[in-house]
Specification:
The chain is an alpha/beta fold. It has one domain (7-156): HUPs (Rossmann fold). It has helices at residues 24-35, 59-70, 86-97, 109-122, 124-127, 145-156; strands at residues 7-13, 43-49, 77-80, 102-106. This is YdcF family protein. InterPro entries: DUF218, Rossmann-like_a/b/a_fold.
């Protein structure tokens, strides 16, 4: 179901970033997050997730710089700078988004699905506000999608805490 007109949080899950510049997957995810914003929302906030998993700067900060300085986004941003896993992304983002009417989780398709499943496990009361994001576009990441699908399916099968 697609809700429009209220407040929304577009939650972008980060991916291991070794550099201070956004890597290919994080650039894709930020672009998908920005195109997922509802132009009719009364309030829309971009929530960027990820700690210092592979580099010295958090994934959230790297993605925020990319959104601001490469893509020209000037709207509100909230950051989760501490997460080191998808479970923690969701856990840490809850206080940043629980005041919003609509929630969208953005990543590659299976990773976003994993994030949505984790939100349902952690906070089903706010998971009811989830709507689909615009992360899939035909032809985009065409060569990577099969690889990401295999990785995602493998990781979906692993038991998680909670």
């Amino acid at each position: 179901m697609r809700r429009t007109g209220g407040s929304e949080a577009v939650i972008v899950l980060g991916y291991r970033n070794r550099s201070i510049k956004a890597n290919y997957l994080n650039r894709y995810r930020v672009r998908a997050g920005l195109r997922s914003r509802d132009p009719h929302a009364k309030r829309s906030v971009l929530v960027l997730c990820g700690g210092t998993v592979a580099g010295d700067v958090s994934e959230a900060e790297v993605m925020a710089r990319y959104a601001r300085y490469q893509l020209g986004y000037n709207g509100p941003i909230r950051l989760d700078r501490k997460s080191t896993s998808t479970w923690e992304n969701i856990e840490n983002v809850i206080p940043l988004v629980e005041d919003m009417d609509t929630l969208k989780i953005v990543s590659n398709s299976l990773h976003a699905e994993k994030g949505r499943a984790y939100l349902w496990r952690q906070r089903p009361d706010i998971a009811v506000r989830l709507v689909r994001a615009e992360e899939h576009r035909f032809g985009e990441l065409a060569l990577l999608k099969p690889v990401l699908a295999v990785i995602g399916l493998n990781r979906l099968g692993r038991p998680r805490r909670g």
